[in-house]
Amino acid sequence: MADDGAISDGSDIYDGDTEIGSNTGSSSTSLSSESDLEERHAVGEQWVRNLFAEDDSDDSVFAGFQAAWKERDFVERLTMDFRGIGGASVLHPPEANPEMYFDQFWTGEMWQQLVDETNRYADQERRPNPPPPSAPIWMPVATDEMRAFVGLCFAMGILRLPSRNDYWRVSNWLLKTNFGTVMARDRFNLIWRYLHLANNDAPGAEGDKLIKIRWFVDFLNDQFQAVYVPYGKYTVDESMVKFKGRLEFRQYLPAKPTKWGVKVWVLAESDTGYLSKFQVYTGRAPGGQERGLTHRVVTDLVDHLYGQYTQVYFDNFYTSPDLLTYLHARQVYACGTVRANRKNLPTALLPKNVNLQRHEFKVAQKDELSFVVWQDTKPVCVLSNFHDPTAMGAVSRRVRLGGGAQQVAVPAVVADYQKYMKGVDLMDQMVGYYIIQHRSKKWWRRIFHYLMMASAYNAYVVARDTSPEMVATEWPNFQDFLEEIVLWLVGEVRSRRDPAANPRPTPGAGRHDIVKMYEKKRTCIECSMSAAAGERRGTTKHGCQQCQQPVHLECVSTHFHRLFNL
Asked: Where is the PiggyBac transposable element-derived protein domain (predicted)?
């Protein structure tokens, strides 16, 4: 949708050679009556001015008295500055690690909730239906083990394999991973089986279709808004969480890359894609909606922004004159493409009534609203409640012959829409790169993994805002940042059956202990010796106590083989 808001030529918006009273006959009568009506409106407007002020030079004070759209003699619109304070709510030291940023969203309360509800659900399932003796033994999960489980889920999004069990392959050395070092396959599958977010026996709101994830959704919504405040520019759009199983509120959106799934209404920062607020759509609300679905969605997402003069951008699914007037009265600036069949638009400027050349545009104004119809490859209509109709901008468009790009002059409302209508798409892009895609019959798991990855990306945005130089040096890409979170979540957890978890030196060769030795990560000595030129070397906080060298836990066996010539 963002491509629809684009550019225009600096063509005239009013033809001064055309005179209103030039026609004759019945047309002249019609136009004459229209002129009389406009004159009466002008007299009434002047009368109101005289009531409130002696100086009527500031027409913007009297916005709201125009009875019809006008295509000339525009009143200048001055916008107010953003009244909020953008940025992270907590300042971190320059040397802060990714785990410190992620820990702001997934706090100790979150981990305790996951542990408690997972153990409770396992007990609820296994007590009435005991598993067969051959089944893996269930032991209650602890917090550090739950963190390692989530870390492995993150890792599965980075390193994608066809099925979960492929991460524990032992038959082909070329395709093996180190997942078995952290957690046994059966243990991981058990936690996956009993992972839960809410107590099934607890009473919930009647008719709440999200009861299984209600606490999780509300908790993250609160954390997303508390940890970071965007810098005054937002995007509202829908995001799709892929799911093809049976579900009452599953949606089909043929125009989206993800066509089947759960729809999520998203409010994201325009520049960074930071997920600020969201709602999971569960279908038509009982009793209907007084102002319509899109009006309810937008107002629910931005109600905490009232009075701050933030700028919100959305596409033609949401935009209407009534909505923009409603938001303007609450000090929320809004802009978006608009469908030509919406009510209360200027009829004379609708695409079916104008014939524009490529990059030509026309503008109309009514009270606080500015309307633009601009001819790109097809007509594009844009509506705003804060743009000055005379302000101009520029957008880039491809040249038809010869290739390349050119800057095209357009009204500022069109240029700003194209610039800032990208927040949700950017968030979807970054989350989609690394979200775990393994199939499940439980729909809420898809929401869990979606919000889990969104939390990690939000942490990355906060880190870039707080320590931009540190991020540019240590984690220039989101994947670098995510890998650090994975290592931190896994921590010291090791599989009980994995011999590499507690390496033993060769008998008679002396004692060599691998322990945590460093506060900051250092380059592994074994990785440095084996890495090819230009290849990235691993870092670790562990090392060999006797050799006083940093050593990866994954490189322990290599270290012993080199020391003892095994």
From this structure: 98-460
